[in-house]
Amino acid sequence: MRDKLMAFLYIVITLSVLGWGITLLLEGKDTRIKGVKLSKAIEEQLPKDSVSIVHFFSSWCVYCRVEFPYIIELKAQSKLPIIGIAYKDTQEQIVPWLDHMGNPFKEVIYDESAKLAYQMGVTSIPQTFVVNQKGKIIYTQNEAMNQASYKKLIDFLEGLDGQD
Predict the structure, then answer these.
(1) Could you state, in order of their start, the residue ranges of all structural domains in the chain?
(2) Which fold has domain 31-160?
(3) Of 154, 150, 160, the residue nearest 66 (C-alpha)
(4) Which of 159, 157, 161 is nearest to 53 (CA)?
């Protein structure tokens, strides 16, 4: 019995360490997911003639609050429409939050059940996607924005000028 318990603990600890290691390796990296198709509910909100930005956020998310000034700046600096997806949040919570923080979104979609997030492979929030005219994801920001990741996103968007 003791040997089985020790074997079980060994497996649990090993898997935990591997998961932690993989997280550290991926942390801070931007990921370009080519060819992934958006959910129909999101795609219907996007203009067909330009690249768009889709941003998952929540009123209860501390990191979302910290990075939100970058989303406001992104709206000011970019001509691209930004669609906000309120992850596990309701209109009653989001509307006052956006009234206080500012609303950079062309449209807000409420994803109370996290179904859209699941369909898009959202691993944590906040998360930002750049989507082409065909509804395919061409850039992903997998963490709260900071000065460096914001600059990386702006550089990517500037590289699209003339291609959209």
Answers:
(1) 1-29, 31-160
(2) Glutaredoxin (3.40.30)
(3) 150
(4) 157
